[in-house]
Structures are given as structure tokens and as C-alpha cells.
Amino acid sequence: MKNIRKKALFIIDNVFYKGAFLKEELEILKKSDISKRDYNLVVNITKGVVQNRTLLDYIIKEHSKVKFKKIHKIILTILEMGIYQIFFLDRVPEYSIINESVKLANIFGNRGSAGYVNGLLRNLYRKKDELLESKFGLMDLYEEDKSLFLSIYYSHPKYYVDMFLKDKGTEFTEDLLKANNMEPPFTIRVNTLLISREDLRQILDEKGYKSQDTTMSKFGIVIENPEGIFESEEFKKGYFYVQDEASILVSEFLNPEENSKVLDLCSAPGGKTSSLSMIMGSSGEIVACDISKSKISLIKENIARLGIKNIIPTINDAEIYNDDFKDRFDYLLLDAPCSGLGLYRKKPEIKWNRSYEDIQALSKIQKKMLKNASKYLKPGGEMIYSTCTLTKEENEDVVYNFLRENNEFSLEKINGEEILKLYPSKDSTDGFSIAKLKRRTNGIK
Ligand SMILES: C[S@@+](CC[C@H](N)C(=O)[O-])C[C@H]1O[C@@H](n2cnc3c(N)ncnc32)[C@H](O)[C@@H]1O
């Protein structure tokens, strides 16, 4: 038996039960001796299972003869993988899905496991069309309890669904949940210090890459077929940085002038900091901070490749007030650590490893960071507070609480919004929240 599904099984087990990150697990696998085709199948299965966990478990609960809580976790994962392949992957034949699942159950389970897995998967396969038609028997729930239906059918935490249903209504919420389960576009930011967007697109085109300009950012390029892009000469030469359009926009909205002094308080691995440098034509000075030496190394690596000269990587804890920074900067970016609920498309495990308590704890940290950050701006200076999450606790609560206590600052609207929200559904970007604050020149109003 080929080891492909065993590899997928171990990866999912590591992600669900050992706190591993899917992207990192897949990066390790990619470096091993594995064909492109097999690698893609592992990516498909692991991502699909992590993304659709609630629905897969619901199907098991409804059809298993063994009580859900009694199913051993390794057998549960084998079932989740099998069911995902039956209902979501068209190109894998039935016999192969069932045979491979039974083989895994034989290796990792006890004597009854193989028969149990075989029976359950065969039964589900027989009822495939009927189950798809009836949305796995969940249709009635749509009217009875919309939030529960959406949370099971699109596999999202209930608190996330409730948050959007309350504020945005059913259609918006359903579109967002669907988009969160889809593949994100592959977006890069051109490094205009070295090449224009037009010229880079021309080179990419000559090499067979299909691309288009991003719709909102003037620096982004979406590549349809990015296979091999990291091995390209253009990547090595620093012509671009892989970055979501929302993230590129954050630096465009701050838009620092040439020769200004900028502080980036949470800058690793350096995406937004290098965009800021590019906007400033690599002039002036950016103090790019992060919490640890290893994080600072990531920034150094990226700015070396991109040929950037005006960034000073600095270890600094944004939670602790630093008097050396007081009133020193024209511009400031606080791209705060957050729950990352805007990143479900890229890091689906975030769905399962963030609790509401985590969000509340992060909100406290962010409030502390924003309070410190505000003291580092010169009068008349501008700052952006951004997160790759969409919760009120980590955005509206943080920003409005700050403004209530600091009337020396005002909120500058972005695209007509006090706190701009970007969504995978509406904007095809990661979920982001962006607020711009200005320190008044003439002190307290
Ligand atoms: C959202 S990420 C920043 C992404 C970065 N701005 C970019 O565009 O590439 C948040 C960063 O905050 C850093 N961080 C977490 N706690 C911190 C602290 N107390 N002080 C400074 N940085 C911190 C994390 O290490 C992480 O790199």
C-alpha cells in the first residue's frame, strides 16, 4: 500500500490533537521524497478534512452504530478522511477510498475496526446522491435553527456564525462561510524598488504565468497558476513578496511620506514593513519591531532579499511602554497579534483552536499595545491599527475604547468607513479590519 493516506492521517492527527499547524506540516512533507500528484492529494484530503470537520463529524454521528464519543480518535480521523473523499473528491474511485480506509483501520485499529469502517463507508457511499440532495438531512434545520444549520453545514464555530448573523443577516453570513471554505487567490506584491508591476507581469507572462492586477491595491498581482514561483529567478531577485491584497492595502492606507520616521510595532515576518519601505522609496527610517530574536531573523531575511535599506529590525515588546520611542515617529503601524479569524481559508485549523476566551484575552493585550503605541507618535502623526480578524472585541472595542480615553486622537475614515472591514466573500481578500488614527497637532481638543 502506498503511504499517501497514512501521511494524510498523521498530519490531520497532529493538527487536531497535537496543536500542529497544517501549513507547516505540509511544508515538511513537500520537502520529502513525494511526487507532485501524491502531495496534491495529501493537501486536498488534509485541508478538506480540517475545513469540513463539523459536517464530517455530523455525518458520522447520524450514521454510526458506535456512539461518537466511543470512536477511537485514529478511527475517527480515518472515517473523516474517507467521508470527505466520498462526498467532496470526484476523481477518487469508490473502491480505492473504501479499500484504503479499511487498510488504515486494520493497521491502527483493533479487530472490529476494519469491519466497522468498511460498513459505515459503504453505507454512506450507497446513499451518496440522496444525502447530497437532502444536504445530509439538514434541510429542516435551516428553518428551525439557522445558526446551527450554517455552523454544521459549512463547518464553522457557532460563535462565529452568530456574530455575523446578528450583524449582517443570513445572506451575507452564508456567502462568507462559503468563501471561507474556498481556495484563496495567490497574490503577490511587486517590489517597485526593483521593478514596475507592468514589467513584472510581462516577465511572468513570458514564463507562462497567467496573472492579473489586483482590483484595490496598486501593487498586487494575482497569479492563477503559481506552481514553481518560489523557485523562479524573479523571486530570488526580490521582485515580489507573497502577500494578501488586504495586507498590502494596510501599508497603502498609512501611505508614509519619503524621508519620514516610521515605527512598526509588530512587524514579523515583514510583509507590511517592506511595503511601507517601498512606498517611501526606501528613504527615511523604519524601526521594525517584534517580540523575539527568531521573529527578527525572519524580517532580516525578507528585507535582504527585497534589497531594502531603510529598516532597522529591533526586538521590542509592544505590551511594555518604551520611553525611547516617545513622540519620535511621523507614522506608526500596529498590526496586532489577533485571533486570525480572517484567515480561515489559509489556516483552517484556526476554526478549531480559538475560543471566545482567547478573543477576550487578545482584546486586553491589543488595548494595552494601542495605548503604548499612541505615545510614540509625534503631534500630527498618523497611525494604523489593523488585525486579520473580524471580531468587535479585537477591533471596534479596542479602537473606540482608546478614543474615549484619548481625545488627542481622531479617527480618519478609510474608503468612507471608520473601521474598514474586508471580507473573503465581498473583497476576495483575507478578512481584515483597518482603522486609521491621527494625533492632533495642537494637543487635547
Ligand atoms: C499579525 S502578525 C504581524 C504581521 C506583519 N505585520 C506582516 O505584515 O508581515 C503579529 C506579530 O506580532 C508579534 N507579537 C506578538 N506579541 C508581541 C509583543 N508583545 N510585542 C511585539 N510583537 C508581538 C508576533 O510575533 C507576530 O509577528
Automatic annotation (TrEMBL):
Catalytic activity: cytidine(967) in 16S rRNA + S-adenosyl-L-methionine = 5-methylcytidine(967) in 16S rRNA + S-adenosyl-L-homocysteine + H(+)
Residues noted as binding S-adenosyl-L-methionine in the record, renumbered to the chain: 266-272, 290, 317, 335
UniProt enzyme class: transferase
Keywords, comma-separated and alphabetical: Cytoplasm, Methyltransferase, RNA-binding, rRNA processing, S-adenosyl-L-methionine, Transferase
Entry's Gene Ontology BP terms: regulation of DNA-templated transcription
Entry EC no(s): 2.1.1.176
InterPro entries, per database record: MeTrfase_RsmB-F_NOP2_cat, MeTrfase_RsmB-F_NOP2_dom, Nop2p, NusB-like_sf, NusB_RsmB_TIM44, RCMT, rRNA_ssu_MeTfrase_B, RsmB-like_ferredoxin
KW Chloroplast (keyword) present: no
UniProt-annotated catalytic positions: 388 (nucleophile)
Residue intervals of the SAM-dependent MTase RsmB/NOP-type domain: 176-440
GO annotations of cellular component type: cytoplasm
Pfam families per UniProt: Methyltr_RsmB-F, NusB, RsmF-B_ferredox
Subcellular location as annotated: Cytoplasm
MF GO annotations: RNA binding; rRNA methyltransferase activity
Tree of life domain: Bacteria
Physiological role: Specifically methylates the cytosine at position 967 (m5C967) of 16S rRNA.
Family: Belongs to the class I-like SAM-binding methyltransferase superfamily. RsmB/NOP family.
Protein name: 16S rRNA (cytosine(967)-C(5))-methyltransferase
Species, as recorded: Anaerosphaera multitolerans
Lineage of the species this protein comes from: Bacteria, Bacillati, Bacillota, Tissierellia, Tissierellales
Gene coding for it: rsmB
